[in-house]
Amino acid sequence: MLEHLKNTDCGTPASLSEELVTLHIDGREVTVPKGTSLMRAAVDGGIKVPKLCATDSLEPFGSCRLCLVQIEGRKGFPASCTTPAEAGMKVRTQSPQLQELRKGVMELYISDHPLDCLTCSSNGDCELQDMAGVVGLREVRYGMDGANHFKGEARAEVDTSNPYFNYDPSKCIVCNRCVRACEETQGTFALTISGRGFESRITAGQGDGFMASDCVSCGACVQACPTATLQEKTVVELGQSEHSEITTCAYCGVGCGFKAEMKGEQVVRMVPWKDGKANEGHACVKGRFAWGYATHKDRITQPMIRAKITDPWREVSWEEAIGHAASEFRRIQAKHGRDSIGGITSSRCTNEETYLVQKLIRAAFGNNNVDTCARVCHSPTGYGLGQTYGTSAGTQTFKSVEHSDVIMVIGANPTAAHPVFGSRMKKRLRGDARRAGAGLIVIDPREIELVSSPHVKADYHLQLKPGTNVAMITALAHVIVTEGWLADAYIDERCDAKSFAQWKEFVARPENSPEATADITGVAPELVRGAARLYALGSADHPQGRQVNSAIYYGLGVTEHAQGSTMVMGIANLAMATGNVGREGVGVNPLRGQNNVQGSCDMGSFPHELPGYRHISDSITRAEFEGAWGVKLSPEPGLRIPNMFEAALEGSFMGLYCEGEDIVQSDPNTQHVTAALSAMECVVVQDIFLNETAKYAHVFLPGSSFMEKDGTFTNAERRISRVTQLMQPLAGYADWEVTQLLSNALGYPMNYGHPREIMAEIAALTPTFAGVSYEKIERLGSVQWPCNEGTEEAGTAIMHQDRFVRGKGRFIITQYVATDEKVTQRFPLLLTTGRILSQYNVGAQTRRTANNRWHGEDRLEIHPHDAQDRGIRDGDWVGIESRAGQTVLRATVTERIQPGVVYTTFHFPESGANVITTDSSDWATNCPEYKVTAVQVLPVAQPSSWQQGYRRFNDQQLGHLAAAQLEMGSQ
Predict the structure, then answer these.
(1) How far apart are CA 202 and CA 210, in angstroms?
(2) Coil, strand, or helix at residue 111?
(3) Which end of the chain has fewer CB atoms < 10 Å from its terminal CB, N or C?
(4) What is the model's pLDDT at position 6?
(5) Strands 550-554, 588-590: parallel, antiparallel or unpaired by DSSP?
């Protein structure tokens, strides 16, 4: 029953050597890569050596002394985990001497360990228990009455401070695996071993418990622990699981694979999947622990309708709700025209569900008024990389960073927003015994963790003024061009000569030098020049003659600007100019924010593109879809989200189908958004909670969480992974089924029986997905698009290897244009926004978990100088006012932010962070300029007028919901 808990653990990491050695272990001939440990070589030969301190996710440590072996011709009993295999070795893993040694070692462990196995939470999943059986321990000659750590006053209290796991020191065998996991896998260095000898024990931080330490609750220590010392509270409460399923995390764009351990339909715990290509057995606090929202009491499982948003909700049957929504949409179209309705797809739903929503809008609504949340995050990535390289896709795998010599991070905070990749990046930055750490350039107005953290320090932090990205990227290019560091051979072979010549002449102009742009960016010229040289040439100790691998990773601090698309093109230019596209360790890598924002774009969620990024105006492409869908498609691009709002206020856009997005909280200028929704005649929201947008809805269709559906997600590295249904949908239908019901009610038939049929249709119509199937994904674990007959079976890991998708790479001139959001006497500060580790996006999921223990409110970070000028102390309430509106937050006085700049997050609706962001947006894509808002900050004594109004409106809407649920419960 517990076999699913037993995974093959090879004890030590695999050797990457291409040279092979052959040896004999217990008489068996074994051939392994040079540098492989004897322990791992034995596993390859079908032999398991007893172990406790060793695990294949960590470097060998050699402390437990259980894995001793004998080697012919050598004295003693070396540890197999730390002894490398050599050609011609003859190794014995079992002998009478080894048996007695191992039994004696195990006897010492057990003499200081409580013998409560039958009631222990790890019973059935305890390596100490297993090894005691393996070595044949039958008695403890020392007795259990001497000095120990598990009886009476000697037994330390269990640390239950962390909401997700316990730490019981009495069961600790000091194997050091948790400490090493915190250091090697996570890179936080929150754990250590305090005391010496018999007094040695694991300590978090300064010894005040896990919650008071620097622990980020990634759970790597819990997973590494071979006993019940560190144990999930859900396992303590529910016991061991009885089966497991492989699925994909529904949080950020890393797309971690998980093994969901289950009892029936109840999840006991989420364990990072060792074979998950995106995460390789690691996770963060959100993915590993914050999944309880799926069964939270706030889940709405009954459809509801109402005539006006001031009316109480009325719970109805699915049939009535779907019929009402369809009739309202048809009524609006009859009254206001075919283009008067549209929809927004979800970046949290599956590829299959997103595909169906855009299909419904194009085929059943009869227009192209479809958009997605990428409009407000990475739409400039699509435009910028499409113009320069020919496709919007990121170029690398996450694992590629392990081959980087230099890493440039622009406008991203990987350790907070993409923490599993952040840990992988930190590991490369730290280096190891085999290789020095990579060089690091951080371009960000704020001092993010990567700038300075344990064993990681940026070589250059270009702390520029918000809104000056384009001036900065052009200045970096200026240094590379004028100092002669261009990759001439690469450019001649791979890039368009005319556009390169024009770009080269432009960036070489004196006005683009670091000295000339210093007043714009606020960054010292010598820092810019040093960073440019590091990116182009590598560190001073870079091996002579070996090509430098420099990689760029960027986030919303690049795209959410008035010149977001320009900056993406500037990044693409810089990578081409230095030859850093098309191989391992290099590339241009957008860090996507949501779990399926890449997929939502791939599936045709933009108003001008069909699935696979093919323009709706192309008659050949359109004919292909018309033939498959059996309907004539409009050749005209539809409305973007901002255009929908404007049209609603003008009276021409009156109906919206919004699946799994909270545009009221996430989109800029909240009061503008709510005014537009209030002007519409029918807003249909499909979600798992009554989110902020649903409070302006007329029809509520219950959604399903990632646990309640089958499908696929596509992460930031174009990796398509399976989402597996773990339990029945709480409301009766998965999201794709709801969309299908609505389409049928609108008169356009959809008759899918399973999401695999939808993926088959996607593959048939989308060249980059032609080779994708559920069978292949389940067999290989994941695939990466492009995946078709012209690629490897698993798709394409590295883009643009021999040529760019567009043929020759195109350089584009990136002229800096100052944002309209300028500081004035009235608004002397610049506000920029971001995310924090424990919360996710609008917080609808994480706010309904114990993650609130780390971050229970949005705060405003302000520099001590600006705070002092305004009489603001840490923790004071402050008013933040822009030309769009005003809100009130509590202040955090910190030097993480530079003078003249303030910073906040947007995870809590009552904070109203987007009340103050404006309608300024990217020139090419309308992506909002969240990262630059001119504001004033002053001490206040009460909430803003918007917050007071929000509180009243929110109470009213929750009252409407409670009344509907009470009425249904009384029937």
Answers:
(1) 11
(2) helix
(3) C
(4) 64
(5) parallel
Cα–Cα distances (Å) from 717 to 84, 204, 592, 797, in that order, read 34, 34, 9, 8
Cis peptide before 786 (omega within 30 of 0): yes
CA-based nearest residue to 766, from 624, 627, 634 = 624
Q: How far does Cα 700 stand from its chain's mean position? A: 28
Secondary structure (3-state) at 569: helix
Show the CA angle centred on residue 161, arms to residues 156 and 164, nearest 5°: 115
CA pair distance 58, 220, nearest whole angstrom: 11
CB 900 within 8 A of CB 870: no
SS3 108: helix
**Which strands form 20-25's sheet, in the order they lie side by side?**
28-33, 20-25, 90-92, 70-71
Buried b (16+ CB within 10 A) or exposed e, 261-277: bbeeeebbbbbbbbebb
Instruction: Extract the tokens encoding 605.
Output: 């969620």
Two tokens, residue 762 = 């996607």
Residues 836, 820: Cα–Cα separation, whole Å? 28
451 and 527 Cβ atoms separated by less than 8 Å:
no
Q: How far apart are CA 584 and CA 298, in angstroms?
A: 45
Instruction: Give me 194's structure tokens.
Output: 């305090």
Q: Which amino acid is at 455?
A: H
Strands 719-723 and 783-784: antiparallel
904's CB contacts (< 8 A; 6+ apart) are 831, 833, 858, 859, 860, 861, 880, 889, 911, 913
Q: What are phi and psi of 256, to 5 degrees?
A: -65, 140
For helices 514-521 and 525-537, the axis angle rounded to 10 degrees is: 120
What type of residue sits at position 570? Answer: G
What beta strand segments (E) does 444-591 contain? Answer: 452-453, 456-457, 460-462, 550-554, 588-590
Mean per-residue pLDDT, 194-199: 85
The amino acid sitting at 474 is T
The reply to whether the predicted model has a pTM over 0.85 is yes
Q: Measuring CA to CA, which residue among 699, 713, 769 is closest to residue 354?
A: 713
633 three-state secondary structure: coil
Q: Amino acid identity of 847? A: R
In this predicted structure, what is the pLDDT of residue 962?
87
State the DSSP string of 133-195. HHTT----TT-S-SS-SSSGGGSPPPB--SSSEEE-GGG-----HHHHIIIIII----EEEES
Could you report the per-residue pLDDT of 694-745, keeping only the tens digit for each?
999 999 999 999 999 999 999 999 999 999 999 999 999 999 999 999 999 9
Give the sign of the dihedral formed by CA 178, CA 180, CA 183, CA 185. Answer: negative
For residue 352, how far is the Cα from the chain centroid? 20
- H or E element in which residue 474 lies: helix 469-482
Tokens 């952040």 sit at which residue? 422
Integer CA distances (angstroms), 809 to 499, 587, 695, 814, in order:
9, 13, 47, 15
* Dihedral angle over CA of 885, 887, 892, 897, nearest 10: -10
Q: Which two tokens stand for residue 411?
A: 């406008």
Q: Are 190 and 811 in contact (CB under 8 A)?
A: no
Give the model's pLDDT for residue 101.
94
| Burial (CB count within 10 angstroms: exposed 0-12, middle 13-18, buried 19+), residue 123 | middle
204: tokens are: 């978090």
CA distances to 156, 174, 723 from 195, rounded to whole Å, are: 14, 11, 45
Mean pLDDT along residues 529-544: 91
Exposure on the CB side of residue 442, measured as CA atoms within 13 A: 22
